[in-house]
Amino acid sequence: MSKNYYPTIGLEIHAELNTASKMFCGCKNDPDEERQNTNICPICMGHPGTLPVPNKKAIENVIKVGLALGSDIANFTEFDRKNYFYPDIPKGYQISQYKYPIVTGGQLNGFAITRIHLEEDTGLSKHDRGDFTLVDYNRAGVPLMEMVTEPVIHSAKEAGDFARELQLLLRTLGVSEANMEKGEMRVEPNISISDNPKKFGTKVEVKNLNSFKSVEKAIEYELARMQALYEAGRQDEIVQETRGWDENKQTTFSQRSKENANDYRYFPDPDIPKFMLSEMFNLEELKTGLPELPLETRERLKKIIKNSELVEIFVQDSSRKKLFDQTPTNYPELAANYIVSSVTDGLGATNTADFGRLIDMIGDNKVTSTAGKTIIAIQIAEGGDPEIIAKEKGLLQQNDEESLRVVVQKIIGEQESLVAQYKGGKESILQALVGVMMKETKGSANPQIALKLFKEELSK
Question: Where in the chain is the domain with CATH 1.10.10.410?
């Protein structure tokens, strides 16, 4: 953006929650169900005379998210009816929350949260059957968390990073899988620009974003579109509206004028009782039971691993982090490197103490890095003490110069082409010769000593 224009972005993020059943009925909550209109009942289909019963686990999941964000958890809360008519809303209204959300305040990635409330998801409209639309109601009534941020984000990248961090947090807490490609997490940015840093511009909301990349691209497109209108003196053409995202054209398009709260005619749902959450949940117990959060993991690992990229891999990958945390070693950075670069998932089933001993052997120069990879493969397949494996396979590092010199002389005699290239001035060939040496000795030769011996023998 030009320095003369000030972008402002707020996010509305929906995430389907991990529960066995839907929000207000006993139907199965199964995002992978492929048979249409299978997990439905009179309650989630809005049949007359049916009564909703709130899902306590869904409420608990939202509280956990609030606790992880340092938010305020409401004592009193209630559910409201959000009235609008659309084919994917079988009741003609959505049960949501308006005045009394479960969570207010808090922050993530340095950005302030306004609120988090709980509602039911809509059905899924299918537009791929010709000139008509069909609706699958399996998703209707699934518990849906909605987070609203303050309008304090100022770039597409910040918005994308925020959404990625929220997805990571939800997965860490175990409250949502938040797969965007399955629609389990949906990001809707509210975007505006202004030529006055003290005033907000007219905002638009972009819907139908199914990836973090699309979120960033849509924001970038809207900011550029608005700036162009400003610079053409046509800023009055920026109207409050809902826009869609065309993935093929990489552009937004107008869908409808943006509704406000009055349009939805919110009122408390008369079929659902009010809640005093302090009577339903022990907040201190829930907070104590939270797992290590991504921010806490970063801070802890940065104290023992200098490489920030390795740290982030462990933050994102819980199985690798678990393996790292369970590996006793005097060389944590070395262990981290091996877990990321060499270790397959199979090592998780082996004895981490044995793996830790192997890392210490590599760090103490008892085996080479190459031999270490061979031993890891054996540990994955068979398990076993690394020292015993190294001895049985002849993989203990060879540091005896005279023994290694014999092998060096043998290789020089056999590798005439490489030797000729080296003597012709191509010094990098030394590394190729060391590679031959490592293969010859099954990775047990000390590579530094091998390099030194090749230089000596080739200078004669």
Answer: 401-458
